[in-house]
Amino acid sequence: MTTKQDSAQAATEEAQSDPDCRGIIETGLADESRLWADRDRDPRAKEELLNRYLAYAKSIAMKFRGQAESLDDLVQVASLGLVNAVNRFDPSRGIPFVAFASPTITGELKRHFRDHTSTMRIPRSLYDRIGQVDSTVGELTNQLSREPSVTEIAEEMHTEEHEVIEAVQASRNRHPMSLDQPTSAGNQDATPPTEWLGETDDNLELIEERILLHEAVQGLSEQERMVLRLRFRDELTQSEIAEQIGRSQMHVSRMLRRILDRMRIQMPSSG
């Protein structure tokens, strides 16, 4: 003998299995367990599941909000993670869907940051810390009505200040500017860095020798400096130098040898 309760339950099950019962799913009134049961054979059931948890996926995307990516792009990535979670979820395991979906959506967002938002490859642990710092900065800014300090961020994250600084620097430097890119984004006529950055000085390694040479020359007499200038700058022969200073070529030769010996003593690195 059937009771009224049994009859009502049978009627409900019959209605849910009836193809004409689409209005229940479309209006969001269907029981979730029924939606999971119909997920693989009824596209409307899968769509309803996605709609029910879309706000949850957006809330996870909000935690990754920062300057590197727009919120709309992050929501799209989180939505893709939600689709993957709905497709892979097994209700028979007895765990809540959000417990399964959370790491799936978060993993999709982290992969997106790792593969698409950086021109430099950064370790996964550092990527995770960048996201944590961005999230903490957003929360503290709302609480304090100002930008938080490194110390405040580190205390909120229960970590060391140098780890916060490392994450901030990595976030800023993972998008290096092209040397051909104009310094002003709104001015296409702006000069690119390649036009004003310095070039490599091939004589840079000679600076120390030049300083020592200058000091050694300062210790010479006026005539000795003139002889050096005529010989090594103007490239005159010893005979031509002798004519200019009114001395013999032998005297000039001895003078040059004496000058160079003294200079070698004062410039041991040139030896």
Keywords:
rod-shaped, mainly alpha, 14 helices
Query: What number is the mean pLDDT?
Result: 77
Strand content: under 5%
Low-confidence stretches: 1-5, 7-21
Computed Rg:
39 Å
Gross geometry: rod-shaped
Q: Quick one: biggest sheet?
A: none
N-to-C series of helices and strands: HHHHHHHHHHHHHH
Give an overview in words.
By secondary structure, the protein is mainly α. The protein contains 14 helices and no strands. Helix 5 (71-88) crosses helix 6 (97-116), helix 7 packs across helix 9 and helix 8 crosses helix 9. It starts with a helix and ends in a 5-residue tail after the last helix.
SSE topology:
Elements (H helix, E strand, L loop, with lengths): L3 H14 L4 H5 L5 H7 L4 H20 L8 H18 L8 H20 L7 H21 L5 H8 L3 H13 L19 H4 L10 H12 L3 H12 L4 H8 L3 H18 L5
Helix pairs in contact: 3-4, 4-5, 4-6, 5-6, 7-8, 7-9, 8-9, 13-14
Describe, in short, the structure shown.
With 271 residues, the protein is an all-alpha fold. Helices cover 66% and strands 0% of the residues. Residues 1-5 and 7-21 have low confidence and may be disordered.
